[in-house]
Design a protein that fits this description.
This protein is of the alpha/beta class and about 190 residues long. The protein is built from three helices and eight strands, in the order αββαββββββα. The strands form two sheets. A six-stranded mixed beta sheet has the order 1-8-7-4-2-3. It has a two-stranded antiparallel sheet with strand order 5-6. It is elongated. The two termini are about 35 Å apart. The relative contact order is 0.24.
């Protein structure tokens, strides 16, 4: 019952969200055989501090929670069916809007008074950032990518750690909504 409530909440969040998700997978893989996962081990021996440590913890916890809801069990790297890794990127975008205004009645007297006033154009330029989270599942034995999902959204400043956790959980929930992939009926 608890799993059902969590899944329904994730569906409700993703239904009214502006998150853009996509996924791709190897159609030759039987995803029902994928039962265990482990995180890709970091190449560096320094596991203490790194620049984005809190966000890394949030993403890993959200992915762990979602994969466990999907029936996968966390295992050691040597015994896992798949290895999990994620990447993030931020792209700067520009939005240009042009508005035409003041058409119609011109209230000034003199030449050209009456209908057919002067048109004015106003252009606004807005720069914003789009953050993307990419999640990879790699076959642990062959090292080949078997599933990749991504989620992107306009980045907003979240003031509290709770808001940041909520955003990460919603993004990962939307990202893994279609995992495991359903085989296409032909």
């Amino acid at each position: 019952m608890k799993k059902l409530l969590v899944i329904m909440a994730a569906l409700a969040l993703s239904a009214c969200s502006s998150l853009k998700t996509s996924s791709d997978y190897d159609p030759g893989v039987n995803f029902s055989e994928v039962k265990t996962y482990a995180w890709v081990e970091k190449k560096t021996a320094d596991a203490t501090y790194h620049l984005d440590g809190l966000m890394d913890q949030r993403v890993r916890k959200a992915v762990d929670d979602q994969l466990q809801l999907k029936g996968l069990t966390k295992a050691d790297v040597g015994s896992a069916d798949v290895l999990v890794n994620y990447l993030t990127k931020v792209d700067k975008k520009i939005n240009v809007d042009t508005f035409n205004s003041n058409y119609g009645y011109n209230p000034y007297y003199g030449p050209g008074w009456g209908w057919g006033g002067v048109g004015h154009t106003q252009t606004t330029v807005r720069e914003y950032e789009v953050g993307t989270l990419i999640l990879d599942l790699v076959n642990a034995k062959t090292g080949k990518l078997i599933w990749r999902g991504s989620v992107a959204d306009t980045m907003r400043d979240k003031d509290t750690p709770e808001e940041r956790v909520e955003v990460v959980n919603a993004a990962v929930g939307a990202l893994l909504l279609n995992y495991p992939p359903k085989p296409e009926d032909k």
